[in-house]
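Support reply, case 0932

Customer input (verbatim):
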Amino acid sequence: MTRWVANEAAVQQSRRAAFARERVACRAALATMLLVLLTASASCRRGSQTSDEQVEWLAVLDVKRAYQASAAGNPESLAAKQAYADAVADFLERHPSNARARQVYAELELEFARGLERSGRIDEAIQYYQNAVLRDPDDDSARSDLARALSLRFVGRDALAAIVRGMTREEVAARIGAPRPGWRRTLIRRGRESDCWYYRGENNAVAAVCFREGRVVATDYPQSVPVATVDVK
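Our regenerated output:
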């Protein structure tokens, strides 16, 4: 009788141990399943976010195509460039970590600033160049653009002396830039018209370059910019 009781107790202890092992195994399996589910859920969320980001970027590329179509007919279309830049900027506000968008926006900002510079809007161009340098001080292209634009804010006597008769408008613009909007005048001397470009000179002076038939005929340091077409007697 005693041996039977002892055997029964051993059986019960063995069963309890087996049950405990099964319970631990079940808990481990449940933990593994939960981890798999959480990982899959996070992956789905990331996939959804990536998909949404891609859809938004495709919309930005649609704006780019519209800009390129406009630029084909008018390379200096600042309005089209601005629309594309705004689209990229809006995208960056929602996805600031997108490296491609950051790169595109930086390139657009410099391109837009160069367009402003070519149209004579030097001060506005300088602001864009300064923003680009502040964002990336190691951007040699932006630093070079900024230095050039700063040098064009004023036309000194030495710079004006480098403009000689016979130069084309393109050659003059390459050396001292284009005049600011509203700083071009037509002068009439002895019945002949001259197209004159005016610039800010040093010490509040004014520099002038006059063309006839597309070529430089004279340079000067007048006291001021004429208010309108002037008939010089």
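We compared this against your earlier run and they match. Two observations from our side: The chain has seven helices and five strands. The longest helix spans residues 2-73. Please reopen the case if you see a mismatch on your end.
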